[in-house]
Amino acid sequence: MNLNDPRDLAPLLEAFLLASGKPQSLERLFELFEEAERPEPAVFKKALDVLRKSCNGRAFELKEVASGYRLQIREDYAPWVGRLWEERPQRYSRALLETMALIAYRQPITRGEIEDVRGVAVNSNITKTLLEREWIRVVGYREVPGRPAMFATTKAFLDHFNLKSLDQLPPLAELREMEPEPLLDPDDAPVPAHLQALADASVEPEVEREETSFHSLLVELDSMEEGLKTDFDDMLDDTPSAADEPESVEDMPRD
Predict the structure, then answer these.
(1) What are phi and psi of 61, to 5 degrees?
(2) With bands split at pLDDT 50, 70 and 90, how would you rate the model's confidence at 205?
(3) In which residue ranges is the amino acid composition biased (Acidic residues) (predicted)?
(4) Which residues, 6 or more positions from 98, have their beta carbon under 8 angstroms from its beta carbon?
């Protein structure tokens, strides 16, 4: 094997990347060779180009991310390949994604500055999750009262999203254009003019009804209460009084 020939070096680099299972920097790849056999940097670059071209038409590709180079499954096959793992991919809340986006685009940024933009408090579990995933890190402290921590993204964040650098983040204007149009409720959809005309022609004219005001309802309730009071008074009038009742058994009329 002639390691100074990019065509011979490319399969060896492929073997390194397949075995590692994670991105490898050029510096790390250099260290895998003895000094006497180590190819020149220019040969490394050509070998990587050969490897990249050899992936054309295959299920995986050579991708350069922040931490280096890696071989990964093409995105087109992700929905099927994901079935290999029983665990479903974790879904992130809108609050977490908004927080992550603000850190990515406005870093370094403090928690208070994130809250000022979002208009709501940042749940401590959100920053804890991002720190545990090593997507963000504390890069310093703002010289203001309380000295709040300033957050920034990491190489792990760039690797996860297939980015080589922050310069590859899409412009905010493009993100706004990518937002889906709000779905129109079928009940709110405009009715075609000819159908509306047919519907109007088929409706019988409604008889005008006198509108009932809140005051008229109160008057009606008062009249109902008056009627109930009169009914109960009539019932009391028909009830024999205590004076009409016999005082004892002897006073009761005998047959």
Answers:
(1) -140, 160
(2) low
(3) 244-255
(4) 118
Q: Rg (Cα) of the chain, in Å, rounded?
A: 40
Sign of CA dihedral 67, 71, 74, 80: negative
pLDDT higher than threshold 70 for residue 242: no
> In 3D, which of 115, 96, 113, 74 has the Cα closest to residue 157?
96
Q: Among candidates 22, 122, 4, which has minimal Cα distance to 69?
A: 22
Do 6-78 and 94-178 fold alike per CATH? yes
User: pLDDT value at position 81?
Assistant: 85
> What mean pLDDT is predicted for residues 114-141?
90
- The pLDDT tens digits for 147-157 are 999 999 999 99
Give me the helices (H) in the chain, please: 6-20, 26-31, 41-54, 78-81, 94-106, 111-118, 124-132, 155-160, 172-178, 193-202, 214-238
Exposed, middle or buried: residue 6 (CB in 10 Å: 0-12, 13-18, 19+)?
buried
- Overall residue count recorded for the chain in this entry: 255
SS3 category, 205: coil
Domain 6-78 classified CATH 1.10.10.10?
Answer: yes
Query: Percent of the chain scored above 70 by pLDDT?
Result: 65
Sequence ranges of the domains in the chain? 6-78, 94-178
Average pLDDT, the chain: 76
Q: Identify the DSSP state of 239.
A: S
What would the mean pLDDT of 49-60 be, rounded to a whole number?
Answer: 92
Task: Give CA–CA dist 123/114, Å, rounded.
Answer: 11
